[in-house]
Predict the structure.
Amino acid sequence: MNGFPSTEFSLDVVREPGALYVRVSGDLDYDSCDELVDAVTESLTGGGAPPQGVRLDFAGLTHIDSSGLSALLLVHRRASALGATLYLENRPDFLERLLHITNVLDHLTGPATGRPDGGADLSWPERGPY
């Protein structure tokens, strides 16, 4: 073991009534961005009422490129279309810089369209590791 975090991409997805939680680990790039978009889209449209909030946790993110940023924009568009608010949590410094340089942070984390209150303030579910 070399002490460096794994760059292998993985997602942990939990859908609960009113909320979708996604933990993103590894490199979000050209090779993995479709996996994120597909997982979120499937969870958003997979029956039942759409969630009020979509929480993406980036504590395990090791890298993001322009394809990964494009995936975040698409996830926002799909969540917002269903009235869900997107939350980007535990953003590493490199993601924070990318969001500020590209000037999309406010766009990605603004209130959902069609929901004047911006949705509920949801917290992570009280359970063990995903």
About this structure: The longest strand covers residues 53-64. Helices lie at 33-45, 66-81, 93-101, 105-109.
